[in-house]
């Protein structure tokens, strides 16, 4: 008889409706039976009496032949086999069960791949050895099933005869599922497509394209935070982005980036937070915090940042670059280690990984922040995909300073999370910069150069006036306004104005993106 009481058929599980009456299994059953305070996986599993497998409303419904034995070993084996590795659930479970039940599973199946994986994960997550002799036989089993989730190259571990291909360390290791959409993105080889996109662009045009896209990204990153700083701060941050990937991430580097981001530090505590933190608003009448997201406890920041640094220097260099960028950057923003500047540094870390891995063409920065700004609602939904599930688990109280003080242990919530939506969103943004922004900007500059050459064949004028003429035409739908004819360009004849307007109309520049010249 099982030591834990597992649920029978239900139609509602933890306030979530099932598509039909079914028995929760795997992680769902374990969370319920052991009363684990962890974020529910994005997709839960259940067994239906009907012989049909389908996914609906966040549930994967399987058939009776998939049903595990109603005990700890059965549900853990089901989870690893069909649901992948959920480190947050597993660590909470191991801390609840203690070593005895896991040792019993391994002793009963000493050569079983799932028992050896559980054995490794227990010791890896809790940093303590079970009372078990080293495995003497059995083929090496991968900890991460790479048919289900992204893993790293991995190293062999003789004690359990496993390959540790987890994409991180016990201090920081989010996971990403290999959805059909993410598989398709990875197979498109966007890095090669970016190289192809720039191959036919003249060197001088490419250099100007790179400069514009860099400035666009820097400006957009501030706009996402609803900030409109002076141009010198935008250019300084752009210069920092241009150097992304040249320096490994460590605490001094993060502090350097924060100093660059914060223009006036008189009212901002620089460095790692010394108190709680949240993203949200305050009640206008009471000043009570109204959090949308609660940051990691300041007591946990040192170890969490250590985990980010270890990830950047290890697994980030051995998994798909966009996957690595999503794990590092979104992990950072959930931790929120600084009082201010987290959002822009979070987006800088995307550039850092892509540049360090040679994903983008040399000297070129993808304007990822601009793509995010254009899809700002999707960006917020992506951030909320985890924050919404995290918030109910955090116990907190309001402080006298209108901040939050977290009362329970939350560090693991930031170490281990499902970053699948984040990777999908980032892939969409990167693809957009390669397929749309990069070619559009290069085409614009080439058309603009042709426009300038043709206008100079009609009338000689300095660059300043040429640029002004172009802006006036853009602003007035391709026609030079009466005011411009009478003032700045009063010396042009009607015949010259007509020819200039015709050149502009034929150039296609009227439909080009704003922000140029």
UniProtKB/TrEMBL annotation:
Q: What species is this protein from? A: Labrys neptuniae
Pfam families referenced in this protein's UniProt entry, alphabetically: Fic
PROSITE patterns per UniProt? FIDO
Quote the Gene3D superfamilies the UniProt record gives: Fido-like domain (1.10.3290.10)
- Membrane-crossing ranges are none
Enumerate the spans annotated as Fido domain. 249-399
The name of this protein is Fic family protein
